[in-house]
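Hi everyone, sorry if this is the wrong subforum. Our group has a chain we'd like a structural model of before ordering constructs, and none of us has done structure prediction before. Sequence below.
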Amino acid sequence: MGDIILTAADGHTLSAYRAGSEDASRGLVVVQEIFGVNHHMRRVCDTFAEAGYAVISPALFDRTERGVQLGYTPDDVARGVALRAKVSNEDTMADIAAAAAALGGKKLGIVGYCWGGTIAWLGATRTTKFSAAVGWYGGGIAATRQEVPHCPVQLHFGGIDASIPMLDIRAIRDAQPSVEVFAYDGAGHGFGCDERTSYSATDANEAQGRTLEFFARYLA
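Answer:
Right subforum, don't worry. Here is the predicted structure as tokens:
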């Protein structure tokens, strides 16, 4: 458990947080929010590791700035948004592939939050590396909702997320009837992070339970 170095197919090296037993039969790539692989994201990884998964969370901002671990102040949000704008989806998917490769021949899932929720969706639609994908409040999913997933997908959204309107959630449901889509009434963006003012313990626990059940079903 701890920090490791990954190498993407284009030669880029990036740091990542690894948790769980290397002998685990199932692996998860955990994809960061716009705040980097910070203390919260590391605790998320540890929680999945405790559930029996080998886990890797790649530092996707390393292509533009290394060692980014932000908090949740307005200034942190602004910095995270600016950093995310400098990283292309193509480079991000290369780094996701490097994380998947580092987990070896395990049956793999991908789960992401905020920006990472969108990347988890793209991991399902633009690669064939994963047997299941879960996205929490991915703001870019609606714009790519017509893409075809290559594995089962489950999505979680806040019912009062100011950045992801219910119209977007309905559009995703309409475009992807086979995808499990859950909207939590009264939950805002980032409801799964206990360091944010939008945190909702009840909704986060329900979404986490569904996430674990989903991975248990498809990564068995």
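For your construct planning: The chain has one domain: 2-218. The chain has a mean pLDDT of 97.
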